[in-house]
Each structure stands twice: as C-alpha cells, then as structure tokens.
Amino acid sequence: MRRVKDARHLDALFPVWRYHPFVTNSALPVDQADITHRRHAIIETTFADLIDGPLAHIPSGLFAANCAWLACAVIAHNLLRAVGTLAGGHHAVARGLPCAAT
C-alpha cells in the first residue's frame, strides 16, 4: 500500500492522502517494489513516446531506412528530454506529437 498527498488538497487543514494498493509476485519489500514499478512505468512511457512518433515508420522494408529512422528517433528523443529537463516544470515530462499517418 502506498500513500501520497492529494495534489488537489495541498492547503487543507488536515492533509488528504490517497492510497494506492498494488499486488506483485516479487519478493522485494514494499518500498523497493514501488520504486521498481515506477521505473517500469517510466520505460513504458518512453516506449509509447517513441512508437507513436518516429518509430511508427518502422519497418519500412529497407534496412538502411530503418537504421536511419531509429537513429533520428533516439537523437530527437534525447534532445526533447534534455531541453524539457532544462526548461523544468511541466516541460520535463512533455511528450512529442505523434507522426501524421501517411
């Protein structure tokens, strides 16, 4: 069970907590299992960002074209993350727009 302060009620007289139960088959303690779960969620968001964006064009049928799309996707993703981190705030977790279907 994990509890976090509810962001909607930060100025409340008494703190408002939200509880998030989770079930796992891991032998890790609860706090470490929660950290592992959060890391997995970050990776899933990264994959979704790449698959919805430049990796939507793979496979193209040409190995060299696939390599070029992958290289461009990695560069664009890393630049987006670096600039978002420098900008701070909600930009740090911003996602790129999906590529238009052609």
From TrEMBL:
Organism superkingdom: Bacteria
Q: What is this protein called?
A: Putative transposase
